[in-house]
């Protein structure tokens, strides 16, 4: 919110600069984004008056104007504005002037006619187009008739002010107003303040209750008041009001609408105005109906549902309650009778509706943060009185009360000892009491005890800690004593789980994969892909976008998105891994999903760089399986890893996918992404793995220890066999290892053959067996005995034919 420095000074005596004031606010209350000085960088922009005007001889839209700028002779300026008129005071940028965007105005000829400056619109001297009033949007701006010719225009347009842009936190809704900011500054600087709350001084014979009735749902509108003002004259607001609105970033519309916005800036209480003659029947505050539609003031049609809240008449919704009014009941120049609305809507319902429809307004911002429930009558009375004065309206003699929220003040007991203990100060009870009173709190003191009553405007204060924070910020954070905490020093380190996670990343990077981080939020379809267990979805109530609606239940789909991103940019060879959490829910009743650590990888293309002596080698199942096996072996599962073919994953290739087991426990899968899925992601052939890292962490592991390299030689023997095609390599290796004796140290498959000279139902396998005695020289008799035992058991178990 942009706060006018000059407006603040009307209520409190400030003897510091705007920059110093902004720094004080940032140190004590809320963050300040910037201090804006609208006239900064502008020069030689003065009040002028068009005294003569002729059409340009060589143009159908340019005018040659003689402009009196308070000098001896008028200045000739060529102007193309359609609304230029003789006798009007205008904004004149003289030769050498600097206007918006640091543009310099020079003398020049326009189609042969000398022009010694420029007549300016508001946006040409720095105002954003979206705050320029509609009547001045396509032309130059007319200054007040009593403006002194030759004076700088800044004081007439409020550009001699300084605007402090506050970034108000959600708990400090009271700072979203001039009055709230003044109260805080009065406490910080210990200065008095004085407000000018206008009260209705004249009323008509008509009553609000005779002209309209209301039906209010107290669950939606905690307080709801209406006031009718008859026979208004809708016209532009006075210049002083327009200045305050556009300096705050609000576009002036007309005097009635501007009154509601001005009141919001001044008091922090949003208001709305309806054209009474456009309403049909009574006003009702209710939940919207599914499919109900409303055209808002910005001329957008919004479709509502039963979770939205609306203000309606007999024909339907006339406003999105607390967010934005409807176009059909809006104030226009033809409006004669006005209904002012001053209400407090449920902040949670307002926020949900604003976020769902992506309509964030100044009103919704204030309702979301909370407004003073006890200030509505003053705000409504002030707005009605302004409508009487600047719109010549007749204020009805009563206020229609649809609902009224009687807020209870928060009462907190605290001691000075407690405050000093927390802050490390030695403030007296009088000092603390003075701070509370400066904040407008009521205080009753008994010995060291204080009973503090908090005004309803401070909805952020509920407990002792809140009071202690108030004392700290008003006393001054810089004044608090600085001490180092007394504590014992401990040596930091990683626990077993953290160490394994970190080691996992280093291992996979060593294997050639690059660390990737994907969004934990994805689409519903992608969340359900590559699932290792059954789970219900965890959907967001208010997602940021349609691509981030559901918590992921796998890591692979995110990696495939990353591969697609790279390959779309001609990076064909991609090898990635990700360590993160997936989110499982056993059923819909589970509120918070279980968070499970996973680690996954995806490889597409080749992992080796092509060179003159090394051709490209595309990744295959065995390469990624080898990465998984090496990773699991290195972290402590050597010799305990098994694989089982699985064709049940819909997203995986049915003939190139296997489940991974450790100690017989299922830990994940490895294989090729199904070609149809790869086509959906627009990627080339890709191989992936996904492992339940939490299960891997929990499983017992072998402790790694150093072994001396044996000084005794090893002996290698080969064995080849014909065997049935359905026999798996793991089964054969298990028998060889089991029957190979104590000296068998390694088994490798070095040949697989199917084809000529081999029956159709058979395959030929050849293994290399390595034997070594680490403590003595191995003799052939021991190796021969072991080989015979292996051969005998293979023939017994699988009916193999040794070749």
From TrEMBL:
Subunit organization:
Tetramer of two alpha and two beta subunits.
Q: Which Pfam families match?
A: B3_4 (PF03483), B5 (PF03484), FDX-ACB (PF03147), tRNA_bind (PF01588), tRNA_synthFbeta (PF17759)
Amino-acid positions noted as binding Mg(2+) in the UniProt annotation, renumbered to this chain: 460, 466, 469-470
The source organism is Apilactobacillus apinorum
Q: Which UniProt keywords apply?
A: Aminoacyl-tRNA synthetase, ATP-binding, Cytoplasm, Ligase, Magnesium, Metal-binding, Nucleotide-binding, Protein biosynthesis, RNA-binding, tRNA-binding
Record-annotated FDX-ACB domain positions: 710-803
What are its E.C. numbers? Answer: 6.1.1.20
Database matches in PANTHER family: PHENYLALANINE--TRNA LIGASE BETA SUBUNIT, PHENYLALANYL-TRNA SYNTHETASE BETA CHAIN AND LEUCINE-RICH REPEAT-CONTAINING PROTEIN 47
The molecule here is called Phenylalanine--tRNA ligase beta subunit
Domain TRNA-binding, first and last residues per copy: 39-154
Q: Which reaction does it catalyse?
A: tRNA(Phe) + L-phenylalanine + ATP = L-phenylalanyl-tRNA(Phe) + AMP + diphosphate + H(+)
Instruction: Give any GO molecular function from the UniProt entry.
Output: ligase activity
| PROSITE patterns per the UniProt record, alphabetical | B5 (PS51483), FDX_ACB (PS51447), TRBD (PS50886)
Which InterPro entries has this protein been placed in?
A: aa-tRNA-synth_II/BPL/LPL, B3/B4_tRNA-bd, DNA-bd_dom_put_sf, Fdx_antiC-bd, Fdx_antiC-bd_sf, NA-bd_OB-fold, Phe-tRNA-ligase_IIc_bsu, Phe-tRNA-ligase_IIc_bsu_bact
What family is this protein classified in?
Belongs to the phenylalanyl-tRNA synthetase beta subunit family. Type 1 subfamily.
Q: Could you tell me what the cofactor note in this record states?
A: Binds 2 magnesium ions per tetramer.
Where located? Cytoplasm
> What positions does the domain B5 occupy?
407-482
Name any cofactors this protein relies on.
Mg(2+)
């Amino acid at each position: 919110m942009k706060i006018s420095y000059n407006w603040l000074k009307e209520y409190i005596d400030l003897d510091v600069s705007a920059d110093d004031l902004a720094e004080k606010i940032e140190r004590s209350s809320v963050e300040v984004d910037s201090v804006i000085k609208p006239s900064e960088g502008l020069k030689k922009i003065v009040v002028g008056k068009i005294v003569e005007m002729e059409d340009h001889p060589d143009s159908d839209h340019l005018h040659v104007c003689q402009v009196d700028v308070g000098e001896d002779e008028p200045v000739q300026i060529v102007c193309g504005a359609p609304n230029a008129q003789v006798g009007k005071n205008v904004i004149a940028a003289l030769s050498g002037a600097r206007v918006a965007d640091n543009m310099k105005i020079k003398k020049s000829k326009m189609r042969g006619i000398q022009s010694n400056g420029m007549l300016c619109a508001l946006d040409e001297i720095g105002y954003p187009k979206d705050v320029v009033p509609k009547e001045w949007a396509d032309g130059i701006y007319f200054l007040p008739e009593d403006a002194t010719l030759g004076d700088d225009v800044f004081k007439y347009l409020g550009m001699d002010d300084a605007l402090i842009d506050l970034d108000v936190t959600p708990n400090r809704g009271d700072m979203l107003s001039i009055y709230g900011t003044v109260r805080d500054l009065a406490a910080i600087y210990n200065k008095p303040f004085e407000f000018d709350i206008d009260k209705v001084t004249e009323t008509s014979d008509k009553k609000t209750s005779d002209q309209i009735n209301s039906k209010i749902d107290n669950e939606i509108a905690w307080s709801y008041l209406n006031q009718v003002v008859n026979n208004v004259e809708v016209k532009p607001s006075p210049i002083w009001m327009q200045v305050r609105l556009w300096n705050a970033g609000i576009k002036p519309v007309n005097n009635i609408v501007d009154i509601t916005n001005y009141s919001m800036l001044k008091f922090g209480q949003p208001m709305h105005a309806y054209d009474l003659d456009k309403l049909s029947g009574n006003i009702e505050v209710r939940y919207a109906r599914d499919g109900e539609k409303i055209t808002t003031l910005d001329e957008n049609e919004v479709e509502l549902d039963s979770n939205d809240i609306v203000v309606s008449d007999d024909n339907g919704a006339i406003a999105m309650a607390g967010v934005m009014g409807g176009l059909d009941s809006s104030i226009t120049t033809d409006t004669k009778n006005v209904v002012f609305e001053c209400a407090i809507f449920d902040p949670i319902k307002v926020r949900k509706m604003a976020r769902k429809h992506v309509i964030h307004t100044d009103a919704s911002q204030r309702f979301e943060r909370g407004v003073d429930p006890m200030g509505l009558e003053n705000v409504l009375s002030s707005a009605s009185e302004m409508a009487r004065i600047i719109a010549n309206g007749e204020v009805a003699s009563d206020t229609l009360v649809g609902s009224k929220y009687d807020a209870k003040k928060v009462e907190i007991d605290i001691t000075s000892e407690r405050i000093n203990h927390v802050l490390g100060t030695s403030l007296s009870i009088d000092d603390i009491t003075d701070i509370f009173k400066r904040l407008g709190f009521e205080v009753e003191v008994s010995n060291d005890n204080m009973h503090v009553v908090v005004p309803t405007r401070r909805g952020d204060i509920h407990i002792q800690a809140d009071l202690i924070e108030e004392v700290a910020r008003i006393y001054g954070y810089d004044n608090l004593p600085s001490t180092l905490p007394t504590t014992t020093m401990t040596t930091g380190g990683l626990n077993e789980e953290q160490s394994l996670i970190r080691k996992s990343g280093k291992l996979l990077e060593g294997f050639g994969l690059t660390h990737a981080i994907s969004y934990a939020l994805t689409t519903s379809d992608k969340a359900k892909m590559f699932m290792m267990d059954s789970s219900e979805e965890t959907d967001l109530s208010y997602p940021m976008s349609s691509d981030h609606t559901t918590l992921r239940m796998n890591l692979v789909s995110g990696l495939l998105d990353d591969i697609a991103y790279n390959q779309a940019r001609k990076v064909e060879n991609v090898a990635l891994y990700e360590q993160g959490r997936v989110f499982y829910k056993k059923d819909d009743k589970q509120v918070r999903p279980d968070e499970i650590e996973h680690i996954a990888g995806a490889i597409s293309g080749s992992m080796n760089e092509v060179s003159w002596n090394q051709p490209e080698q595309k990744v295959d199942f065995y390469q990624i399986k080898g990465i998984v096996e090496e990773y699991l072996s290195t972290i402590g599962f050597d010799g305990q890893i098994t694989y089982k073919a699985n064709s049940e994953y819909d997203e995986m290739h049915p003939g190139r996918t296997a489940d991974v087991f450790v100690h017989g426990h299922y830990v994940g899968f490895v294989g090729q992404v199904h070609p149809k899925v790869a086509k959906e992601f627009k990627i080339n052939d890709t191989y992936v793995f996904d492992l339940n890292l939490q299960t891997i962490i929990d499983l017992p592991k072998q402790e790694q220890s150093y072994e001396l390299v044996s000084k005794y030689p090893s002996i290698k023997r080969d064995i080849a066999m014909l065997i049935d095609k359905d026999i798996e390599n793991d089964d054969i290796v298990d028998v060889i290892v089991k029957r190979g004796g104590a000296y068998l140290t390694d088994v490798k498959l070095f040949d697989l053959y199917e084809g000529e000279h081999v029956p159709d139902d058979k395959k030929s396998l050849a293994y290399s067996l390595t034997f070594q005695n680490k403590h003595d020289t191995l003799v052939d008799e021991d190796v021969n005995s072991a080989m015979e035992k292996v051969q005998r058991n293979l023939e017994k178990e699988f009916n193999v034919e040794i070749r």
